[in-house]
Write a structure and sequence with these properties.
It is a single chain. Helices cover 36% and strands 18% of the residues. The chain is α/β, with parallel strands linked by helices. It has a single domain (18-284), classed as Aldolase class I (TIM Barrel, Alpha-Beta Barrel). A hairpin with an 8-residue loop joins strand 9 and strand 10 (263-267).
Length: 296
């Protein structure tokens, strides 16, 4: 579907983090340049491309006129960070000049896209106003990462995240409960906690695996090759992952609609209180979110 009108020129379905719900959504690219992760079907129908500069110009002009109440801007699609620097230079300069009320610019990024930027590039992006990267780790377990075709190993994920932090970016890291199935649940939780601790991001967002039938991993689940956790299994995994995550000054959140139990903890001070909440849920003292209320 292609929208051609005075409004923002968005193509296809647009995906953004929950915290960008009220942001200006600027679709600089289409799809995902990697697009091989087996759990994700978000961009399967789009071929990766950088949109034409004339469309960018039109969208900036629209935002100048109609988006003055929105002080955040999110650059889409799936891994826009991978764009060459000349595109980022133009875009960020125009945001700064023409949308001066925008206080935060964010985008999705992955280890591949970060690795393609030099340290000087990353510093320049930060200088130009890009400040928050949503960084998908998904799992810290090497076998799980291989199973889901993430295209990275744990040490590469840590290395590239640390480069972002060194350049001054805030990181919002995504991890997925249940992605290792029941068989690897414990190891996935522990190793993901280890990787999160090494990265030490400002934000961790834990989602629970929910699959659409067009996600490549769905066939493994349908055939019984991959057995997924159920309600309390997800909570146990969350507890083990949380227990093994050490943040110096960050938020660990499992407040996405996919989760059976909601937590929002600032670490380190909320550790004990949050573990008590998780254990209370495991003891049946706190109701879990019913299936009909869970959503992607």
């Amino acid at each position: 579907m292609f929208f051609e009108n005075e409004g923002l020129d968005h193509q296809g379905f647009c995906f953004r983090p929950p915290s960008e719900a009220y942001s200006i959504l600027f679709q600089a690219t289409l799809g995902c340049s990697y697009n091989k992760c087996t759990f994700c079907s978000a961009f399967k129908e789009k071929r990766f491309a950088i949109k034409d500069r004339a469309i960018w110009e039109k969208d900036i002009s629209f935002a100048e006129k109609y988006c003055r109440r929105q002080n955040r801007l999110f650059v889409m699609d799936g891994d826009a960070l991978i764009m060459p620097m000349r595109h980022w230079e133009w875009l960020l300069a125009n945001i700064s000049e023409r949308l001066p009320w925008v206080e935060r610019v964010a985008t999705y990024g992955n280890a591949k896209g970060v690795a393609m930027k030099s340290d000087e590039d990353l510093l320049r992006l930060r200088e130009l106003g890009l400040s928050l990267i949503y960084y998908g780790i998904e799992s810290g377990h090497p076998e799980v990462l291989k199973d889901i075709k993430k295209g990275s190993d744990p040490e590469k994920l840590i290395e590239q995240a640390q480069r972002l932090k060194k350049a001054g970016f805030e990181l919002s890291v995504t991890v997925i409960l249940g992605i290792g199935g029941l068989e690897k649940s414990r190891e996935h939780a522990i190793e993901t906690g280890r990787v999160l601790s090494a990265v030490d991001p400002e934000y961790v967002g834990a989602l629970s695996l929910m699959l659409s039938e067009d996600a490549p991993i769905y066939e493994r689940v349908r055939s019984g090759e991959l057995v997924l956790p159920e309600g309390l299994d997800f909570v146990r995994e969350l507890g083990l992952m949380f227990e093994n995550t050490k943040l110096s000054n960050g938020w660990f959140m499992a407040n996405h609609a996919s989760n059976y139990l909601t937590i929002k903890a600032h670490l380190p001070e909320d550790r004990d209180k949050t573990m008590r909440r998780i254990n209370a849920a495991l003891e049946g003292e706190i109701d879990l979110r019913p299936e009909w209320m869970r959503a992607l």
